[in-house]
């Protein structure tokens, strides 16, 4: 049995948390896609507790950092189209944040995938682009012109100079790290005055996730914690950020991808996906608010 941890945002002991979802893991179903981005839902998860103090849902007995790093390193990757769609939505939601930065020169992305978001940020005026990505398959899928921006491995603060970035992004990654507060604190130390740390996370309190319950794709073996508005604000506040802002936004993906996530019985899902594929409807793009939240905090000037 792995040791129990306190809430990784507010440090409340696990005794002050209530059961959110019991562990449900079938080791025979774990594959190269179990720790891949935008995968078919597997409906497996570690034991999740809900903190009564800050509202975070978190794994009480998480795998070790080395175990997680190995899982992400060997994970498969087949979501380049969805990564591009996500980056388009992220940039649109980020523009008000970018307008408030003291300067736009150096950006670091934690969990960069193929580096598509960095390419969009280059178009927004950033000249030095750095991405950290643990999946070798994701980096291999990146076009050649982005690979010089990408560093394979997990994020380690000491790899970078303090106060050397104007923007640090961590999109759909804070759920996956073992210590989100350590990541947010490291980002603050790496940011210049007037710089911003920006995250995108799931919100388990959103309407769609409450309706889906245990069949929500966010209840997943990859997720070490799942945020809500209060727990995000608590995280940014505890780490010393100012001008903290949170907002939900719309993701625009193809119908093919939305069907991949839908909690339909397997035969029905197969039939619907095939029918949409034959008619071309699966390529239609739909913008949906599925409860994702963009949060930003600034380092005082």
From TrEMBL:
<dbReference type="Pfam" id="PF13489">
    <property type="entry name" value="Methyltransf_23"/>
</dbReference>
<protein>
    <recommendedName>
        <fullName>Class I SAM-dependent methyltransferase</fullName>
    </recommendedName>
</protein>
<dbReference type="InterPro" id="IPR029063">
    <property type="entry name" value="SAM-dependent_MTases_sf"/>
</dbReference>
């Amino acid at each position: 049995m792995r040791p129990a941890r306190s809430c990784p945002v507010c440090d409340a002991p696990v005794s002050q948390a209530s059961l959110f979802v019991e562990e449900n893991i079938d080791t025979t179903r774990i594959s190269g896609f179990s720790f891949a981005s935008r995968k078919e839902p597997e409906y497996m998860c570690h034991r999740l507790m809900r903190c009564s103090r800050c509202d975070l849902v978190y794994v009480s007995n998480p795998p070790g950092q080395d175990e997680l790093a190995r899982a992400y390193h060997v994970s498969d990757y087949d979501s380049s189209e969805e990564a591009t769609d996500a980056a388009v939505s992220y940039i649109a939601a980020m523009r008000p944040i970018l307008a408030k930065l003291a300067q736009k020169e150096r950006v670091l992305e934690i969990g960069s995938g193929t580096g598509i978001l960095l390419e969009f940020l280059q178009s927004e005026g950033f000249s030095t682009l750095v991405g950290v990505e643990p999946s070798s398959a994701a980096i291999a899928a990146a076009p050649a012109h982005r690979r010089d921006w990408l560093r394979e491995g997990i994020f380690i603060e000491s790899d970078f100079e303090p106060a050397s970035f104007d923007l640090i992004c961590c999109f759909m990654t804070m759920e996956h790290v073992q210590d989100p507060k350590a990541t947010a604190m490291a980002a603050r130390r790496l940011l210049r005055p007037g710089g911003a740390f920006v995250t995108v996370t799931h919100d388990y309190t959103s309407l769609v996730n409450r309706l889906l319950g245990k069949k929500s794709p966010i209840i997943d073996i990859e997720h070490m914690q799942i945020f809500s508005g209060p727990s995000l604000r608590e995280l940014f506040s505890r780490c010393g950020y100012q001008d903290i802002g949170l907002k939900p936004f719309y993701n625009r993906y193809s119908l093919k991808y939305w069907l991949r996530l839908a909690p339909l019985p397997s035969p029905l899902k197969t039939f619907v996906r095939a029918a949409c594929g034959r008619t071309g409807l699966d390529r239609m793009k739909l913008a949906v608010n599925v409860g994702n939240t963009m949060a930003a905090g600034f380092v005082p000037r």
